[in-house]
Design brief:
The chain is α+β, with helices and mostly antiparallel strands and 200 residues long. The protein has helices at residues 33-36, 130-133, 145-156, 195-198; strands at residues 30-32, 41-47, 60-73, 81-94, 101-116, 136-138, 142-144. The protein has a domain at 30-167.
Length: 200
């Protein structure tokens, strides 16, 4: 898949230390409203494992995370920020069936929008359209790229993580990994016709 790539502007070049290369200023990759009011901000980062906290000790990043795109302040809105681009990253997590390590490759475009968290919402606004339902929120005077990437990656994870599609899982009786060895355990099935009598 071909990703969205934007040439960096001379005023701001983001390096692989997750910091903007601006003279006299050190901070994380932060899209401030003040800067976005002047122009769109392109970014291209190569982040090693550990730069983004996925808030899950079982989820880890394998190799570098590459992301490129741009952030912009949408006109005729009250501080709505749009961040779009492309990311590629490989993640590792335990397989939900056998608990062995599973690999998850994400290589995809993203297009996300965020509103200020303190934006007033009319009291009679009880329904949100599809676009608003997918809207994110930010606090303060801008948006951190780390939060954008973390949110998108977590939403892209499959409901069930498996090491392979034909994973046989763990035997519920003896605990043997059935991908590595076959066990002779048999699961006894109860006769449901007598289930009501057992409750008497």
């Amino acid at each position: 898949m071909t990703g969205i790539r934007f040439p960096p502007e001379p005023a701001t070049r983001y390096n692989n230390q997750f910091e903007p290369s601006r003279e006299g200023q050190e901070s994380c990759v932060f899209f401030s409203i003040r800067d976005l009011e002047l122009r769109k901000i392109p970014f291209e980062v190569e982040l090693p494992s550990g730069k983004i906290d996925f808030l899950d000790p079982d989820l880890n990043q394998s190799g570098n995370l590459h992301a490129a795109g741009q952030a912009e302040l949408l006109s005729s809105t009250l501080g709505e920020i749009r961040v779009r681009g492309h990311l590629r990253v490989t993640l590792g997590a335990p397989c939900d069936r056998c608990l062995e390590s599973a690999s998850i490759l994400l290589d995809t475009d993203f297009d996300l929008s965020y509103r200020p968290a303190d934006m007033d919402i009319a009291a009679d606004e009880v329904e949100l359209d599809e676009g608003e339902a997918e809207m994110g929120f930010y606090e303060g005077d801008g948006l951190d790229l780390a939060d954008v990437l973390r949110e998108f990656i977590l939403l892209q994870l499959p409901m069930q993580i498996v090491c392979r599609q034909d994973c046989k899982g763990i035997c519920p009786v003896c605990g043997e990994n059935r991908n590595k060895a076959a066990c002779q355990c048999r699961l006894e099935t109860a006769d449901d016709r007598w289930a009501a009598l057992k409750k008497l």
